[in-house]
Specification:
By secondary structure, the chain is of the alpha/beta class. The protein has one domain: Vaccinia Virus protein VP39 (Rossmann fold). The chain contains eleven helices and ten strands. The strands form two sheets. Strands 3, 4, 5, 6, 7, 8, 9 and 10 form an eight-stranded mixed beta sheet that branches. A two-stranded antiparallel ribbon has the order 1-2. Strand 4, helix 5 and strand 5 (137-141) form a beta-alpha-beta unit. The radius of gyration is 18 Å and the shape is globular. The relative contact order is 0.14.
């Protein structure tokens, strides 16, 4: 429990700093897009391009550049099957990127609620909401494992590269099931592992800040979803995350690097859907 608290505080501190920057200044994000000086949060001098994690939102309806901090690893709104009038919740909503895209789909008759545990992110999201003038968008300061939302109250839950950062993933998925209406569903994009990664890579604190060491094996991730009681679980999209050689060489010797590239092992973004019965 104490370790979980420490991890959450580390994540909150990191994303609090990111929230205070605009997208062009966002150089401290180890999960974001654009060149990132990893020394700001990971203790190394290497310069990374973390656009390998994020997908392009710029052509999506409802897109607001100020809300896009490049912190995602997929496009869950593309596969979430949202309908006009739906009540949608985004877990780990950040500056509001997925929330505003979802709002463009559910329309005036729907409602979108963002949940984030970082006060600076909530402040930034609310400033963005004020610019847009939306009345059916809300942002709440809370942890994704324990939201202020009522049981059986939500049509769709989305999340983008957030649950992998939680040290209590089973609790998070249980919370998703609690707030979803019977027959409703979630769609999340997240980082998972396939195959046994070399320990130096998996356990590195630097790689944790880059969304890797906090990730589970894909089968374990899906196992948590099944254990939470979801049905009709389907992986809608898989994308391999190709880390640059100069980064991998910090953690792997030449033999390990060759095997890592040749074998069907590595770091992947998946977008998965599951339904509540």
């Amino acid at each position: 429990m104490e370790n979980s608290k420490k991890i959450k505080e580390m994540v909150k501190e990191k994303y609090g700093k990111i929230a205070e920057q605009n997208s062009e200044e966002n150089n401290s994000s180890c999960c974001g897009s654009g060149p990132s000086i990893i020394s700001s949060c990971c203790g190394t001098e290497k310069e990374l391009d973390y656009s390998i994690f994020s997908d392009d939102y710029s052509k999506k309806g409802g897109y607001l550049a100020e809300a896009d901090l490049g912190l995602g690893c997929g496009l869950p709104t593309d596969f979430a099957d949202m309908k006009p009038g739906n009540i949608v919740v985004d877990l780990g909503s950040g500056a509001g990127n997925d929330v505003f895209v979802a709002r463009s789909i559910v329309g005036e008759s729907g409602k979108v609620i963002g949940i984030d545990m970082t006060p600076e992110m909530i402040d930034k999201a609310n400033r963005n909401k004020e610019k847009l003038g939306f009345k059916n968008v809300e942002f709440h300061l809370a942890e994704i494992e324990s939201t202020p939302l009522e049981k059986d109250s939500v049509d769709v839950v989305v999340s983008n590269c957030v649950l992998n950062l939680s040290p209590e993933k089973e609790k998070a998925f249980n919370e998703i099931k609690r707030i979803l209406k019977p027959g409703a569903h979630f769609c999340v994009s997240d980082i998972v592992l396939k195959g046994k990664l070399p320990e130096a890579l998996k356990e590195s604190a630097a790689m944790y800040a880059g969304c890797v060491s906090g990730a589970l094996q894909e089968e374990d991730y899906i196992g948590i979803i099944k254990k939470s009681g979801f049905e009709n679980i389907e992986i809608k999209k898989t994308k391999r995350i190709n880390l640059p050689d100069e980064i991998l060489k910090e953690y792997l010797n030449d033999n390990e690097l060759e095997k890592f590239k040749k074998d069907e092992i590595g770091i992947f973004s998946i977008t998965v859907v599951g339904h509540k019965n």
